[in-house]
Amino acid sequence: xxxxxxxxxxxxxxxxxxxxxxxxxxxxxxxxxxxxxxxxxxxxxxxxxxxxxxxxxxxxxxxxxxxxxxxxxxxxxxxxxxxxxxxxxxxxxxxxxxxxxxxxxxxxxxxxxxxxxxxxxxxxxxxxxxxxxxxxxxxxxxxxxxxxxxxxxxxxxxxxxxxxxxxxxxxxxxxxxxxxxxxxxxxxxxxxxxxxxxxxxxxxxxxxxxxxxxxxxxxxxxxxxxxxxxxxxxxxxxxxxxxxxxxxxxxxxxxxxxxxxxxxxxxxxxxxxxxxxxxxxxxxxxxxxxxxxxxxxxxxxxxxxxxxxxxxxxxxxxxxxxxxxxxxxxxxxxxxxxxxxxxxxxxxxxxxxxxxxxxxxxxxxxxxxxxxxxxxxxxxxxxxxxxxxxxxxxxxxxxxxxxxxxxxxxxx
Amino acid sequence: xxxxxxxxxxxxxxxxxxxxxxxxxxxxxxxxxxxxxxxxxxxxxxxxxxxxxxxxxxxxxxxxxxxxxxxxxxxxxxxxxxxxxxxxxxxxxxxxxxxxxxxxxxxxxxxxxxxxxxxxxxxxxxxxxxxxxxxxxxxxxxxxxxxxxxxxxxxxxxxxxxxxxxxxxxxxxxxxxxxxxxxxxxxxxxxxxxxxxxxxxxxxxxxxxxxxxxxxxxxxxxxxxxxxxxxxxxxxxxxxxxxxxxxxxxxxxxxxxxxxxxxxxxxxxxxxxxxxxxxxxxxxxxxxxxx
Lengths: 412, 291
What we know:
The complex is a heterodimer. Chain A is α/β, with parallel strands linked by helices. Chain A contains 13 helices and 14 strands.
């Protein structure tokens, strides 16, 4: 038995009481503890510029929500990190769920990384709101019930541009030469493009796979000239599209160029006078929907430049998540899944509200084709694009451009 | 027709190789004369591109291409004086580490100053479009680029082989201790070589900015190719780098013609084969511990 003097006992008790007094407040304020959300997005690599905008978008939404009192009275605490590559994305997602104790995962733009994060989320039975990755396969054969997809998938982008091309008589019996990014998203896009061509009379004169780290396209441009197609078509992603466009303008090949994927940051980076043709977008800052204009004004004031579509989509995604948590009064995964699966409508700053389709968890929303303004018509370096009318038209269901049950083998 | 297409790829590869040469030559010179591996070479390339974009806004494209290499060369003097100088007599791995660290710092510094989004750089409209010579398609701009590289190459060759400056540099590459014994300090020559090397890299950046994306990580992209070219050509050899650069451009072009998906990997396979057969590189100085 240890001999403790009375003095030591008194000192120890005082110390213990003092420590508890410090500890107690944190126990009491446990009810107002923050809601942790894990956010992953590529900040390096060929999608890095898009990831930077994505972060700005979600941060702005986080600030607005927190200033308005938070979700269920609790402040949001978003940890946002660079997903780097698929393997790192999976490791970080696992760490965020296990060690950091996040309630939900959000984000990603790279389809390959999104796939690994989806698998981590399913394994841990936690919700992942997959915001920016567009590969069909994520909502298709790789779908799982823990993931909800916000951005439009490859097929919708193909449909948006394809319909515009059909309308402009640039589809039937025309020979297309396609350049495809050699990873899951590129392959998906090429597949969707091919089925659109087949269904609408387009022909394929050539299809080249391009590794995602190619920066010089001159050999491909030579091959294009050798094949003499009618239209050149880009199935590339991120800053590869920018490079292709710049070098296409450099060589001045006579064939029109279109593409089935483009992000506005990539279009801006191409520089004045280089971009041409018809491309798809999920949103653009010149949209005249009033709620969208307010968002654009606030973002531009805060960041000194207009928002790109990835900033917009991350902003509305966090707002949707906050709405879901507020209405279900919980951060519990199953309750949130049920709320989204009910096909609840959300204001996504577009003409029509969006909702997640119950059987494949894809957000149903409008998309837009766009062309490039003639030289001299742009008001500033961000105003170079001419937004086309929303697709589908106002009287058609949002599902007309989405993947049909035949095209989408998703089953949960 | 097939052969004609292949030939077109070869010619385009030579043009691209000329561009790689501009970057690789500086890297090779710095290693050959100073014995330091400059992994920060790509950072100077990136700075050249960014400086050129900034200067173009005020003075136009022509002055930008001339002034930005000069500005970066000044930066090169500081780099040499305060960082590189300490590592001439040290283990090569130390220079590798410090320049690698510097490359990362430079990339992040660029990101902080100019942001992560790529800058848009356009070329003067006079250069746009292509020319058809015979049956071959050339981009007007790349022919201009090739002309500039040829001029620079001739200039560097003349400097190395027809001036007393060059004589000392070449002696320093082969027998630095003998040069010291003869009472010549190699230090000032090294400074000029570093200035020249990073200036050429910056010129490469400035020239390529209109046809590639100007973003913070562009230095990392180019350093790998430059390194491969230097290794294939062999250290200490002027013509080795020239031949290697052209070879790399041509091999890449041919691979893309036949098997496009393997295009980027082909240069590494080439390096692998060259190193297997001849570790010193095609025309490099014999390095005793490797052979």
